[in-house]
């Protein structure tokens, strides 16, 4: 039905027959899908008479967005990061967007979101030296890190230091730190049995272990500057 909705919105006028031929299905299937779309609240207009067409109201969908819980959480956290960065652009409607998203959550889920937001730290912008040597981490690594962070799950990683030396570690991703545009993981490192900060783009591989950890307070992690890097 998604393809059908897109097709209807793109074209001001098309018949059931046209749609059936274009999408490779029967006219009966198109008619059934149109009925289901109307049941879901989509505004579908139809012209009466021989050769009449159907169309989806071009204004349908404005103000409507079906997000999963995980997607809504990501959006809320992104809004929070944007606000913490104090960017003057495109902030006028953030309060309204946030209120609408939060209103869709149960009290228990709102508390979960607040806890996640409190675990994301925003620091000063990264130096030009650091920015010149960074690149976006591969998507599978980002996904593994994201899930481990959200679920408070230990992560097995392969990490490369600035001098090129690599090591295998198990880390507890307690906090995420953004020194725009570079992300760091503030973690408990099982290999060193100590706190460490890892630059996300230097993680070469990452996999979840299924082992969960108890969150430590921010005070347990003392961040100190060390040139253009961060150490614990």
TrEMBL record:
Question: Which UniProt key words apply to this protein?
Answer: Transcription, Transcription regulation
Q: Which Gene3D superfamilies match?
A: Winged helix-like DNA-binding domain superfamily/Winged helix DNA-binding domain
Q: Does the keyword Ion transport apply?
A: no
Superkingdom: Bacteria
InterPro entries in the record, alphabetically?
CBASS_pafABC_assoc_protein (IPR051534), DeoR_HTH (IPR001034), HTH_11 (IPR013196), WH-like_DNA-bd_sf (IPR036388), WH_DNA-bd_sf (IPR036390), WYL_dom (IPR026881)
Which PROSITE patterns would you find in this protein's record? HTH_DEOR_2 (PS51000), WYL (PS52050)
Task: Answer yes or no on keyword Transcription regulation.
Answer: yes
Any one Pfam family here would be HTH_11
Supply one GO molecular-function term. Answer: DNA-binding transcription factor activity
- Start and end of every HTH deoR-type domain? 1-55
PANTHER family on file: PROTEIN PAFC (PTHR34580:SF1), PTHR34580
Q: What name has this protein been given in UniProt?
A: Helix-turn-helix, type 11 domain-containing protein
Which taxonomic lineage does the organism of this UniProt entry have?
Bacteria, Pseudomonadati, Pseudomonadota, Alphaproteobacteria, Hyphomonadales
